[in-house]
Design a protein that fits this description.
- With about 350 residues, this protein is an alpha+beta fold.
- It is built from 11 helices and 16 strands.
- The chain has helices spanning about 15-25, 30-35, 35-40, 95-110, 165-170, 180-195, 200-215, 220-230, 235-240, 245-260, 300-310; strands at about 45-50, 55-60, 65, 70-75, 80-90, 115-120, 130-135, 140-145, 150, 265-270, 275-280, 285-290, 315-320, 325, 330-335, 345-350.
- It has a 7-stranded antiparallel β-sheet, covered by helices on one side.
- Strand 7 and strand 8 (about 140-145) form a beta hairpin.
- Helix 1 (about 15-25) crosses helix 2 (about 30-35) and helix 6 (about 180-195) packs across helix 8.
- The two termini are about 50 Å apart.
Length: about 350
């Protein structure tokens, strides 16, 4: 009979638990292949099914415990059914090995099947958590319990960037990198995603996970964009097609700026005699003024800068021929006004 769910009272537990559960359940095979390849080779993934969330009463205290990720599958080429319990752990806990042993016992007693326990440590301290729980009496070892584990902060993120493994890509955000490497880690994550042919829902899951744990500031985001521009043109094009924080942030701001209008017209003035280039929306309200020095050069470059600074996607391919400016997820065109005396050009941005 199912028991009432009681959450563990740790800061951030709910969000962490949900994110890891969604990631590992959606990419279970990839998770095992990335971190436990020897075990993975013996599993029949055609038979994998996830058991409903399990709750147990931890005697004698009567505390409610839950097991979020519990997969059932068969050993490849055999009829042996095995349960795989994955326990994400976001904080250091001295008694964790004993706690996992209790989970193991409760699962084993309920299902009467072999259980493979796995711990995923994502806390940032490098304090070692033993992968063994022992009980001894008078120098006699009564019990030795062992479980598989990974401590993400101790993983070198560079060891995974050549793979096409979606779980490894998302978990780069929790691996061991320095503050100076944050931009490079984000760039490599985007490059990994660009190589994978995933449906939009899974792409959003991976990006949401990564962005929750490794959120760059505006300066760092700008550095990522500069690094993307230095990639091979074909690869850069694939990266810029990804749904990412640039597009999301620009889309939201654009929607606010346009007040849900289908189109927003921006007028860009760029004459050498003016002190600045003024960008206005359809209601003639000023959105941006560029310094005079920025007004020189092709209109495409000005348009690209204008769209960037008004909150839209900076991943722009500007054409110096004056034909078009392309933004992932949007259509942008510009052309001369009919008035011969005017040096203005108009930009039509369709949301």
């Amino acid at each position: 009979m199912p028991l009432e769910l009681v959450m563990e009272k740790q800061a951030g537990y709910n969000v962490h638990d949900r994110l890891f559960k969604e990631l590992i359940q959606n990419f279970f095979k990839e998770f095992m292949e990335a971190f436990f390849p020897d075990v993975s080779a013996d599993l029949d993934y055609r038979r994998v099914r996830f058991l409903s969330q399990e709750q147990f009463t931890d005697f004698p205290g009567g505390e409610q415990k839950r097991v979020d990720i519990l997969a059932e599958t068969k050993v490849k080429g055999k009829d042996t059914v095995i349960l795989i319990h994955v326990e994400p752990q976001s904080y250091y806990q001295k008694l964790f090995p004993e706690r996992l042993f209790r989970y193991y016992m409760m699962i084993s007693l309920r299902h009467r099947k072999p259980v493979l326990p796995i711990a995923v440590f994502s806390y940032e301290e490098k304090t070692e958590t033993p992968d063994t729980y022992t009980f001894a009496f008078h120098n006699i070892e009564i019990l030795r319990f062992h479980y598989l584990s990974i401590h993400l902060i101790k993983k070198n993120w560079r060891d995974y960037i050549r793979s096409n493994n979606p779980v490894a890509a998302a978990l780069l955000s929790k691996m061991g990198y320095t503050k100076k490497e944050r931009v490079q880690v984000k760039l490599e994550f985007l490059r990994m995603l660009a190589r994978m042919e995933l449906d939009p829902a899974k792409m959003r899951l991976l990006y949401g996970f990564f962005d929750f744990y490794l959120k760059l500031n505006e300066k760092e985001e700008a550095e990522v964009m500069e690094n993307i521009k230095m990639l091979d043109p074909d690869e850069a094009e694939q990266v810029l097609k990804l749904p990412n924080s640039y597009f999301d942030r620009g889309y939201r701001k654009g929607k606010e700026e346009g007040k849900n209008l289908t189109h927003t017209l921006l007028a860009i003035a760029y004459t050498k005699t003016q002190k600045c280039c003024k960008i206005k929306n359809k209601s003639k309200r000023s959105l941006l003024s560029l310094p005079r020095g920025e007004c020189y050069g092709s209109s495409s470059r000005i348009v690209a800068k204008a769209i960037n600074e008004t909150g839209n996607d900076p991943g722009i391919k500007a054409s110096n021929r004056g034909s078009s400016v392309l933004v992932p997820g949007a259509r942008i065109f510009f052309g001369r006004k009919s008035c011969r005396k005017s040096s203005h050009r108009t930009v039509q941005h369709q949301y």
